[in-house]
């Protein structure tokens, strides 16, 4: 049976940490589906709008060779629905979310992968601001 992998994130100010997790997520299966947080959802999570618009973030993700499908994640509460709609057998998240999605083990395998050290959108924003 083919393994369909799903992952979620904002992927704002796209950087190598994002590439690494998506590349490794794809290696967990045959087909990779990415749920990208809407601008509104990101505001509710982080109290700010992303630097890159939703449509630009979608365009960047769709252009990657290891991403097969992209959809917009409108609510954190709908994870189970998104997983089932996508017919995903595996959920991959960075280990900053360790344990947070264990409920989803009812629907699929859940794998937390180590984050890439020393890079984040927040740090990039801080560095650029200080220039
Ligand atoms: N990531 C990583 N290494 C980094 C930075 C990010 O592996 N240095 C991973 C995160 O762990 C996450 C993915 O890249 O799995 C996307 O990161 P964010 O855009 O920061 O995602 P976030 O806003 O945390 O959204 O429902 C879950 C959320 O939507 C996740």
Q: Spell out which ligands are present.
A: [cytidine-5'-phosphate] glycerylphosphoric acid ester
Structural class: alpha/beta
Q: What is the helix tally?
A: 5
Report the uncertain regions.
none
What does the overall shape look like? globular
Indicate the radius of gyration in whole angstroms: 14 Å
Question: In sequence order, what are the helices and strands, one letter per element?
Answer: EHEHHEHEEH
Structure description:
The structure is a single chain. Helices cover 35% and strands 21% of the residues. The chain has 131 residues and is an alpha/beta fold. Helix 1 links the parallel strand 1 and strand 2. The longest helix is centred in the first third of the chain and has 12 residues, at 16-27. The mean pLDDT is 96. It binds [cytidine-5'-phosphate] glycerylphosphoric acid ester. [cytidine-5'-phosphate] glycerylphosphoric acid ester (C2G) binds at residues 8-12, 17-18, 21, 37, 73, 76, 93-94, 96, 115-116, 119-120. The site of [cytidine-5'-phosphate] glycerylphosphoric acid ester has 18 residues, from strand 1, helix 1 and strand 4.
Short descriptors:
5 helices; 131 residues; binds [cytidine-5'-phosphate] glycerylphosphoric acid ester; single chain; alpha/beta; 5-stranded parallel sheet
